Amino acid sequence: AEGCSNMCSFCNIPLLRGNFSSRSINSIVNEVKNLIEKGVKEINLISQDTSSYGADFNNIVGLATLLKNISKIEGDFWIRLFYCYPNTFTEEVMEVIASDRRFCKYLDMPFQHINNQVLKAMNRKINRVQIENKILDVQKYLPDLAWRTTFIVGFPTETNEHFHELLEFVSAGHFQHVGVFSYSHEDNIRSAKWGDPVPNSLKHERRNQLMEAQQKVSRKKNKSWIGKQLKVLVDGLSEESDLLLQGRSEFQGPEVDGIVYINEGEARPGTFHSVEISEVYDYDLVGRIV
Asked: DSSP of 118-166, one letter per residue?
């Protein structure tokens, strides 16, 4: 899809790219087929609001229908979903993901904040209770899911109390991966009416605090993998050393999450292998091919 129709107050995507406009199912499915026939092993579905796929069509076609059609394609590959807006992420979509092991048990769902007043000022059309209920709903269908989310700190109306509510929420350990962005003031966004009252130094401090809290969560979650085996898609030689291979599990999205370093075994790029995890870090895992 292109564009977005959500009108979050901190974003100018609708102004730049227009309203949300979905590609046809056939065009997406044919592209996926062509890529898989060429040997591609991972397909990432992404738009400004992936959950709302098909909402602009004059029928009942939605994201679940698209995923069902992709699920009919034969082959050993992964499908990964990015940027799913929480409000329109349905139980039917959860059921489809749970029904096919090729759909990565991984979900990127940006929440942006957790405080109700900030969420309202951001025009997110969701509150804390609804976010927490969405997390519980998804976990019923996908209990082993790796969550990725993003938050914005330093929004013009964010107070110290609002930030500490967000810090406590992140520290509770809901997420495997968290991205944190400092609010960026622009003249052509709706939140510009509040100015940019939070100093950059405070934005930076809040971002660091949030990332430090998530690092503790990520390391704890990663420790649970020690001694266990993960299916890993091998990318090739490590960027750190040509004595290591590197790849990713289904719980790690490309370029935004950690990686799996492989210190024993041989594998060609673009192949799946079972890797036993022996060491973990804040973001990365280390193991051997078994």
From this structure: HHHHTT-S--HHHHHHHHHHHHHH-TTPEEEEEEEE--TT--HHHHHHH
One-letter amino acid of 165 = E
Q: Structure pTM?
A: 0.92
Q: What is the pLDDT of residues 36-80, one digit of tens each?
A: 999 999 999 999 999 999 999 877 789 999 999 999 999 999 999
- CA 19 – CA 103 distance, rounded (Å): 28
Count of alpha carbons within 13 angstroms of residue 100, beta-carbon side: 20
Other CB atoms within a 10 A radius of the CB of residue 240 amount to 11
> What is the tens place of the pLDDT at every residue in 144-162?
999 999 999 999 999 999 9
User: Token pair for residue 130?
Assistant: 């609804």
Classify 94 as helix, strand or coil: helix
Cβ(72)–Cβ(112) under 8 Å? Answer: no
Beta-carbon contacts of 111 under 8 Å, excluding residues fewer than 6 positions away, are 86, 131, 149, 150, 151
The enclosing H or E element of 16 equals helix 13-17
Distance between CA 93 and CA 84 in Å, rounded? Answer: 11
- Of 74, 79, 147, the C-alpha closest to 108 is 147
